[in-house]
C-alpha cells in the first residue's frame, strides 16, 4: 500500500475526515437514510442495509492500494454525515481522483462539503505533491456538476457511453484541478468556509 492510500485524520473548522472503519456502519446507515439519496437513479449512495458491505468494499480497495476512504463527520455536532475517497490512485503519475462521495441531505449547503474538499485537496497537492486531482460525475447529476465547478475545477470533457451504471449506459463528465491552479482554488474555498464559520 502506498502512502497515497493512507487515511490520516484531517480536521477543518466544519468537517473532520477520519479513517473509514466497519464501526461506522450503523451511523453512516442513519446518515444515508437522511434524504434517501440512493433512490436517485444517477447517484451511487449505499442503502442503510448495504452500508457494511459498502464500507468493506472501500477498505478492500484500500488494502490493494487503490483507494483512500474516509468517513465525513460534522465538526460541530460530531455526527457522521457521509463518506468520501481518493480513488483511481496513480502515485507514479502523481494524481488522484476524489470520488465515491455522498453526504446526508441535511449536510448539503452547510459548508461541510467545501471544507472536506479543502482538506482532501490540501492533502493531494501539499502533502502528496500531486500534479492533478480529478472528479468524475454522471452527466445527469447537475447538482454534483455544479458543486464541482464551485470548487474551481475545470471541465475537461464528457466521456460518452463511459460505463453501464444501474443498467443504463452513462455519460461521465470529467473535471480537474491542476497544481498551478491550487492556490486560487484554495483561496476560493477558504473564503467559502469562512462565510459558514463566521
TrEMBL record:
UniProt keyword Glycoprotein, yes or no: no
GO molecular function, one term: acyltransferase activity, transferring groups other than amino-acyl groups
Coiled coil: none
Keyword hit for Transferase: yes
Keywords tagged on the record: Transferase
Organism superkingdom: Bacteria
Matching InterPro entries: Acyl_CoA_acyltransferase, GNAT_dom
All residue ranges annotated as the N-acetyltransferase domain in the record: 16-154
Record-given protein name: GNAT family N-acetyltransferase
Lineage, broadest ranks: Bacteria, Bacillati, Actinomycetota, Actinomycetes, Micrococcales
Amino acid at each position: 500500500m502506498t502512502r497515497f492510500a493512507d487515511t490520516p485524520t484531517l480536521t477543518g473548522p466544519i468537517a473532520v475526515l477520519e479513517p473509514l472503519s466497519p464501526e461506522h456502519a450503523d451511523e453512516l446507515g442513519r446518515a444515508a437514510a437522511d434524504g434517501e439519496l440512493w433512490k436517485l437513479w444517477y447517484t451511487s449512495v449505499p442503502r442503510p442495509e448495504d452500508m457494511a458491505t459498502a464500507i468493506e468494499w472501500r477498505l478492500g480497495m484500500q488494502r490493494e492500494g487503490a483507494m483512500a476512504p474516509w468517513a465525513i463527520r460534522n465538526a460541530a455536532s460530531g455526527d457522521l454525515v457521509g463518506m468520501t475517497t481518493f480513488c483511481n490512485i496513480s502515485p507514479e503519475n502523481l494524481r488522484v481522483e476524489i470520488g465515491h462521495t455522498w453526504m446526508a441531505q441535511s449536510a448539503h449547503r452547510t459548508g461541510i462539503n467545501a471544507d472536506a474538499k479543502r482538506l482532501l485537496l490540501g492533502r493531494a497537492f501539499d502533502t502528496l505533491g500531486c500534479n492533478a486531482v480529478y472528479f468524475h460525475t454522471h452527466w445527469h447529476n447537475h447538482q454534483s456538476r455544479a458543486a464541482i465547478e464551485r470548487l474551481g475545477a475545470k471541465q475537461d470533457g464528457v466521456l460518452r457511453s463511459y460505463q453501464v451504471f444501474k443498467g443504463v449506459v452513462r455519460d461521465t463528465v470529467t473535471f480537474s484541478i491542476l497544481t498551478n491552479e491550487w492556490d486560487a482554488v484554495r483561496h476560493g474555498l477558504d473564503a467559502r468556509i469562512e462565510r459558514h464559520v463566521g
